[in-house]
Amino acid sequence: MQELKSLTHWSWFMLDDEYFLEVKRRVYSALDDSIMQKGVQRGMASFLSNLTENLGHEHVLQLAGEVKEFKRHSISNMAELLKQAVDSIQRNGVAAYIAKDKDDAKSIIKKLTDDDRIIVKSKSMVAEEIGLRNYLISLGKEVWETDLGEFIIQLRGDKPAQMVAPSLHVPREEVARLLSDFFKVDFGKDDLKGMVDAVRNFLREKIAKADTGITGANAISAREGALLTVENEGNIRLTMTLPKKHIVLSSIEKIVPTTTDALKVCLAQSYYAGYTKPTYISLTSTPSGTGDIEKVMVRPAQGSREMHVVLLDNGRSLASSSEFSDMLRCIKCGACQMVCPSYAVMGPSWGGKVYTAAIGLVWTAITESIDEAESLSYFCLSCDACNEVCPVGIDVSGLIKTLRKKGSSNLMNAEGLG
Amino acid sequence: MAEPISRVQLFRVMVDNQEKFGNPMGISSKRMVEWADDIPFTSSSSSSTYIYTGGLYQMMPKAERFVELMKRAEESSGLSFALRFLGGSAASTLASKLIGVDHDKFERSKAIIRNASRLLRKSGIEHSYLGRDEPYTGILFYELGMEEYFIDVARKAAKLFREKGVKKLITIDPHSTYALRELYPDFLDSFDVEVLHYLEVAKPSRNDTWKGKATVHDPCILSRRLKLSSNYREFLEALGIEYTEPARSGRMTFCCGGPIESIAPAVSTKISELRCSQLAEKGDKAVVACPICLSNLGRCGYSRDRGGSNARIEVFDALELVHVG
Ligand code: SF4
Question: What's the pTM value of the predicted model, to 2 decimals?
Answer without folding.
Answer: 0.93
